[in-house]
Amino acid sequence: MAQLNTIARSGDPILRIIAAEVTNISDDEIQNLIDTLIDTATAVDGVGMAAPQLSHSYRLFVMASRPNSRYPYAPTMEPTAVINPRILSYSKEIVKDWEGCLSVPGIRGKVPRYDRIEVEYCDRNGNLVNQELSGFIARIFQHELDHLDGILFTDRLESDLDRFTEAEYQALISG
Given 144, 158, 166, 168, which residue is catalytic? Predict the structure, then answer.
């Protein structure tokens, strides 16, 4: 298992800068960072994690959706490294749904996101991947891509009425 890292919190300047492109995917630093992102996300019940959250300014994140205490209804997928991602196209439909962030602890929000997106990225082996994502997985991709552009989910809230504490969120989804 890779070493778990401390997660950067809101207020840390690294969360507000545009991350650099990954130029050598096979570099040991990048491959080890991918493993650390997956291990850290799993250990803290995250469904995704971006390199800037572990204080590395690279255009790299992982998606690792599975049901857990933070997202009990999340679909299950294999942890996936997403390197130098781009969104190629968006659906017209925008859905407002729950998000939280390990870098913004104790807060949840109803965030508007595109329901379907066509994306392109490199996997951890350097293969170019082009796919259409929808629903919760599309939401993870957009949330993590925002991290690479210095944007937090709280920046996307349309109103303070869309902001909730973690306790309020848990009460709403369990009752």
Answer: 144
Q: Are 64 and 137 in contact (CB under 8 A)?
A: no
In total, how many domains does the chain have? 1
Q: Is 93 tagged catalytic?
A: no
**CATH number where 105 lies:** 3.90.45.10
Q: Is residue 161 part of a domain?
A: yes
6 domain-assigned: no
CA-nearest of 91, 96, 39 to 62 is 39
Residue 1 in domain: no
Q: What's the pTM?
A: 0.95
User: Measured between alpha carbons, how far is residue 149 from residues 19, 86, 144, 154 in Å?
Assistant: 6, 11, 9, 14
Low-confidence ranges of the chain (pLDDT < 70): 1-5, 175
Note down the domain range covering 153.
Answer: 13-174
What's the pLDDT tens digit per position in 91-106?
999 999 999 999 999 9
pLDDT for position 4: 58
